[in-house]
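DM from R.C. (forwarded with permission)

"hey, sorry to bug you on a friday — could you get me a structure for this? deadline for the figure draft is monday and I only need the backbone to look sensible"
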Amino acid sequence: MDEVELAAERLATAARTKVTCAPVRDLVGEDEAYAVQSRNIKARIAAGARVIGRKIGLTSPAVRRQLGVDQPDFGVLLDDMAFEDGATLPTGRLLQPRVEAEVAFVLGADLTTGPFDEQTAGQAVAYAQASLEIVDSRIAKWDITFTDTVADNASAGLFVLGTEQTKLADVVTRDVSMTLSLNGEQRSAGTGADCLGDPLTALAWLATTAVELGDPLRAGDVVLSGALGPVVPVAADDEVEATITGLGTVRAAFGRQS
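My reply, with the result:
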């Protein structure tokens, strides 16, 4: 196997066995990281999963500081990652989960002709929602660089969408405020401006990047635009609630099942 195959297999084995692995930066660099991600996503699709959107990572300065990286990345959302508001999530599927609150966009039109800015990307948005993303690293102790997290599907795990669907005409995404509570205690806070200055800026970056890579965003896609504040570690039996002004509240519990 070449280095891309070896890196993909290392991450896939960790996900399958639920035993964290060493970083993959000894095998691949930044230029190969998305090829590793793509290889494992294609394997999951071949096994029956379906692509339903993308996630943007590392948009919050606080999260970039926490993880020691300095630029955004993106990953792929599959249908088996999605859960309804208030669901009990299968913590047994995860290795070392952390939760963050984000503005989610659901697209009503394709984004195929870039580059995009906040206005042109926003015109394709059907509505926005509050969301929780449960990030998870297959790499031991979250010892990640940009290369590692990209290869690991941007450290994607699970996600939950709130029930309120808000038109962009009714909310200014850069001005929203977020609070996130763990077991009734506030543990994270932030604003839309903490996500690359505006969650729509993150969407425009992703849409432009996706076109450049030949795989544009499509109508119906869910886009998790990035954390609005610091991530919070979670474990079985925890309960999380996040409120984003103008977008409502989203909740999840963490069960012990796989």
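R.C.: lifesaver. The first strand starts at residue 51 and ends at 57.
me: no worries. The chain has a mean pLDDT of 95.
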